[in-house]
Amino acid sequence: MSRGWTWLSCGALLLLLPGASRAQTTVDPPSPPSRAWVVVGAGSVTVRGDCQTCEEDYPYRSGGTLLGNLGYRVNERADIGGEILWVPVETASGQIRATHFDAVAQVRPWTTRGFFLKGGAGMAFIRNWVDAVGPAPINSKALSVVIGGGWAFRRAERIGFQIFASQHAGAIGDLQTADGDVPDVMSNFWTIGAALVFR
Amino acid sequence: MTIRTASIALALLFAASSALAQPAPEPVAPLDLEPAVDLTEPLDHQPPAPAGNRACDGCPPRGVGRSLLQTTGINVLYGLANLARGQATARITPKTWWANMENGWVWDLDDFVVNQIGHPYQGSNYFNAGRANGLSFYESAAMTAFGSATWEYYGETNMPSLNDFINTTLGGIAIGEVLHRAGWLIRDPRASGRGRLWRELGATVVDPVTGYNRFRTGDASASADKPAAMVPSAIGSAVAAGVLWRGTEERAVNSTGQPFVEMDVLYGDLEGGRSRTPYDAFTMRLRLGGGSAVSDAKIRGRLLGQPLGGGAVQFTVAQSYDFQANDAYDFGAQSFEAILGVSKAFSPRYTLRLFGAGGLTVLGAINSLPLGVEEVPEGEVDPDAPQGVSEGPRFYDYGPGSNFSGAAVLTRDRDIVAAFLYEGRHLFSLDGVRANHFLQHVRADVTLPLRGALGIGASGEYFSRHTFFQDADRTEQQFWYPQFRAFLTWSVR
After folding, report:
1. Where are the beta strands (DSSP E) in B96-174?
2. Which pLDDT does position A95 carry in this prediction?
3. Which of A33-42, A153-162, B6-15, B145-154 bottoms out in mean pLDDT, i.e. has the lowest?
4. Which phi and psi (to 5°) does residue B214 adopt?
5. Which pLDDT does position B459 carry in this prediction?
6. B6 vs A163: CB contact, 8 Å cut-off?
7. What does the alpha-carbon distance between residue B176 and residue B121 come to, in Å, rounded to a whole number?
8. Which of B35, B27, B25 is nearest to B277 (CA)?
9. Pick the residue with more confidence: A135 or B290?
10. For A114, phi and psi rounded to 5 degrees?
11. How far is A9 from chain B (nearest CA, A)?
12. Closest CA to B386 of B37, B1, B86, B42
């Protein structure tokens, strides 16, 4: 997925939002939000692998990402649910694919503001992770942790919009590779993006 | 580029929110507190509405911005303390902040006790910066994550540690809420005089942030009812002091006894009713001595409770914090579990309670040595390493896993007469020596009342550890030992 595709997706989301809103207001008065919490979005991601004792500076790689949340609105301040983040990054040696499945909670400290914080943990699947902490590609499961935040617009409507920034960690741990053991390996994914929110 | 953009975006969002929210604090009740007005009461019987932005007269005033500020202040205090101790990791600059942001999370190499007790305690301070400013449990949980993340990125020159972040956040929530509620058990906001002052000071030792805020705002000397959510439906505790004998694989009992003191607390009623108030019921165990300074610490706090089958079975979702140090293993974990419980009364005085639980361990730590190494080598610590910098190697491993347990408890007038406990844990060591660890712990207690609250008891325990290494030979190791204790108990209700 190219960077251009990412920005195209974000633009499409932005364009879609007013359309959806107009369509609602011309037919019926908007119904109150449900208890559902559904988020679909895209963003730009930077990926890097590292380990505590590695001497080498490993490269940063960039690409696009897709994000989805499905969950339950606990109250006006909190949502809980699941999150999936899919990260395909093209390299000269092939496509790195990382998929994070996390249980997440999202908190809005102020009900009158769009600001929110998000955190969660789960599992990540890292595939064909090339040139990350050595020349050989790596396939591994990892402990996934996510922190992030953002700003939600139209948060009281059934269809809203949010911008977000987040950091996902894929805690891989000690790896046994063809080139020997690599201890304390971690993959980091920094994302900025935009998403539609359905409630 | 995205790192810089993401970081700046987060910082701008955060700063804008803080600034916007400061002038107009919201008079909204914390989520898990009782409503200030009971709609079932006639209007003339209604308690007076609380003043200002408090959920109740005895509740702290709500302030999200102040909570964020105090959380940051706690980080500054910890940083200054480290600086005063001469720790190289405390010499932070904007350059180290940026380097940490560029690098992202790592696994750290710190000491086991620092990571499994020290960081959770630090997290409890962040949590109580939320609670002390009127935030709900879950909002304070988010505050803990904020404090922990900012400490990891900006409080030390070390790269931010993911295992610290998890331990500080989840352990901090568990310890923080227990300490917050313990503080409210000590306080008597209707009392006056010197007794009142000593209680407020005692509570401040237990929960420093809430205590500081109460002295700062004058609440420490004001007369008000305790917040209803901070008054447990029941409370019971038992202190046991005695001698512990630990066996080996060859001998059931080692002749050298070790003194210990154990405190068990049962706060609230875990056995029945519908609950959505986190930690309105929890159990806590703390054992000092018995081979190490802290040999056992466990918190199990109810997040939600629901009767099933017309109340015949009680379903509970709980959060757990664990720390164990014994000859079979050093173990610490942050977990969540689902519990099913039933109780059967044999007579008006005797009741049998049965529990079964299963859950997930988000992150567990277990001591471990590489294959072929029998004990931690001497002199592994680099003497040239700057103070406060852990350069490894680390002789314990981290990973997620699962946990399961069962218990049978016979009580007489709510005092435990006999108890049997089985705990099993699986831990997949992700960071460290790749292996599956299977830990088992069996414990049987008998207690006899002597006079009044005084009783005498004996306990037998069995610890087992089975490790399946993921090396080419699929090596297995097993280690076990028994443990016996004799003690006097003092029950308090």
Report:
1. none
2. 87
3. B6-15
4. -70, -40
5. 95
6. no
7. 8
8. B35
9. B290
10. -85, -5
11. 17
12. B86
| Tokens encoding A190 | 């920094």
**How far is residue A24 CA from its own chain's centroid?**
28
pLDDT higher than 60, residue A171? yes
Is the Cβ pair B6, A166 closer than 8 Å?
yes
Contact A77 B400 (CB under 8 A): no
Neighbours of A179 (CB within 10 A): 11
Tell whether ipTM is more than 0.90: no
Q: Which B residues, 407 through 466, put their C-beta within 8 Å of a C-beta on chain A?
A: 429-434
Cα-based distances in Å from B54 to A16, B33, B49, B361: 42, 11, 9, 36
Contact across the interface for B162 and A186, Cβ inside 8 Å? yes
Residue A19, pLDDT above cutoff 80:
no
Q: What percent of chain A has pLDDT over 90?
A: 46
Weakly modelled stretches of chain B, pLDDT under 70: 1-51, 249-255, 373-374, 376-393
Pairing mode, if any, of strands B350-367 and B294-308? unpaired
Contacts of A117 in chain B (CB under 8 A): 142, 145-146
Indicate the angle between helix axes B119-131 and B64-84, nearest 10 degrees.
150
B-chain residues near A111 (CB < 8 A) = 26, 28
- DSSP H or E stretch at residue B7: helix B2-21
> Does B107 contact A184 at a Cβ distance shorter than 8 Å?
yes
- Among B4, B8, B66, B105, most A C-beta atoms within 10 A, so best to mutate, is B105
Provide the number of CB pairs (under 8 Å) joining chain A to chain B: 143
Residue position matching structure tokens 């980080």: B75
| Residue in B22, B106, B361 to test binding to A, most A beta-carbons within 10 Å | B106
Predicted local confidence at residue B480, as pLDDT = 86
CB atoms within 10 A of CB B86: 11
Q: Do B145 and A147 touch (CB under 8 A)?
A: yes
Q: Are B446 and B462 in contact (CB under 8 A)?
A: no
Residue type, B276: R
Q: Which residues contact B422 (CB under 8 A, 6 or more apart)?
A: B405, B406, B407, B440, B441, B442, B443
Cβ distance B25 to A71 under 8 Å?
no
Q: Which pair of tokens denotes residue A33?
A: 């939000």
pTM score = 0.84
The pLDDT of residue B256: 79
What is the rounded distance in angstroms from the CA atom of residue B417 to the CA atom of residue B457? 9
Q: Helices in chain A by DSSP H: which ranges?
A: 3-27
Q: With CB atoms and an 8 Å threshold, state whether B14 touches A113.
A: no
Contact (CB<8Å) B165/A165: no
> What gap in Å lies between CA B15 and CA B23, rounded to an integer?
14
Crossing angle, helix B208-217 and helix B193-206, to 10 degrees? 140
Take residue B432 and report the two structure tokens written for it.
């460290």
Q: Which residue of A has its CA nearest to B25?
A: A110
Task: Provide the percentage of residues in chain A whose pLDDT is more than 70.
Answer: 80
Measured CA to CA, the distance from residue B479 to residue B476 in angstroms comes to 10
Query: What residues have CB less than 8 Å from A112, skipping those under 6 apart?
Result: B21, B24, B26
> Touching check for B21 and chain A: CB below 8 Å?
yes
Q: How close does chain B come to A28, measured CA to CA in Å?
A: 32
DSSP-derived 3-state class of residue A161? strand
Of A142-146, A186-190, B245-249, the one with minimum mean pLDDT is B245-249
Separation of alpha carbons B145 and B166, rounded Å: 8
Least confident of A9-18, A80-89, A116-125: A9-18
pLDDT at B170: 97
- Name the average pLDDT for chain A: 83
A44-60: average pLDDT: 82
In whole angstroms, what is the distance from residue A143 CA to residue A53 CA? 19
* pLDDT value, residue A35: 87
Residue linked to tokens 């003191």: B261
